[in-house]
Amino acid sequence: MYNKVILVGNLTRDVELRYLPSGSALAKIGIATNRRFKKQDGSQGEEVCFVDVNLFGRTAEIANQYLKKGSKILIEGRLVLESWTDQSGQKRSKHSVSAESLQMLDSKGASQGGYEGEDYSSYDSTPPYGATSSAKSAPNTQAPYKEPQIPEINIDDDEIPF
C-alpha cells in the first residue's frame, strides 16, 4: 500500500504548539490549498480545500518559530484517520495529514519584517535597491549595507531521517 500526500498552501491560523507526555513536540496547523479551473460557461472557478496537519519533534518547533498565519508552505506526509468521542458521547472522525517534511516557501521578507525575531529579507550578497558601487564615492547618506545573519539551527544526527 502507498499513502503519500503532497500539499502546497497557506497557513489558515498560527501554529499551535504543545508537548506530549513523552516530551516530544506536537504542532497543529491548518493549510488552505486552492485549484483554479475554467467552468463550462467559460468563467474562472476556484475550489478551496482546508486541511489539518500535524507536525512532530524538531519540525514542530521550527514551524512554531518561523511560521504564522498566511505563510506559504509545502508539506509531504501521509493521510491519517483521527477518531474520538465528543462531549455528548458521539463518535467522531476526520482525516488529517501527518507531516514527514516541511518546506517554507515564502520569499524572504514577504511577510511583514521577515520571520519572527530576525530579519531574513535578503540572503543574497547584492546590496539593497539604490545602493550601487558608485554610491561609495558619494557622501554616505544612508547606513552601510550589513550582511544578514543566517540563523544557526542545532540538529543532532539522529534527527536526520536519512
Structure description:
- The protein has one helix and six strands; from the N terminus they run E-E-E-E-H-E-E.
- The protein has 162 residues and is mainly beta.
- A five-stranded mixed β-barrel has the order 1-3-4-6-5.
- The longest helix has 10 residues, at 57-66.
- The radius of gyration is 21 Å and the shape is globular.
- Mean pLDDT is 78; it is low at 111-140.
Which secondary structure elements does this structure contain, and how are they paired or packed?
Elements lengths: L4 E7 L4 E4 L5 E14 L5 E13 H10 L5 E14 L5 E14 L58
Parallel strand pairs: 4-6
Antiparallel strand pairs: 1-3, 1-5, 2-3, 3-4, 5-6
Please state the structural category: mainly beta
Poorly predicted regions are: 111-140
Into which percentage range does the β-strand content fall?
35-45%
Distance separating the two termini: 21 Å
Summed over residues and divided by their number, the pLDDT gives a mean of: 78
Number of helices: 1
What is the strand tally?
A: 6
**What is the oligomeric state here?**
single chain
Sheet of most strands: 5 strands, mixed, barrel
Radius of gyration (CA) equals: 21 Å
What is the molecular shape?
A: globular
Q: What is the element string, with H for helices and E for strands?
A: EEEEHEE
Proportion of residues in helical segments: under 10%
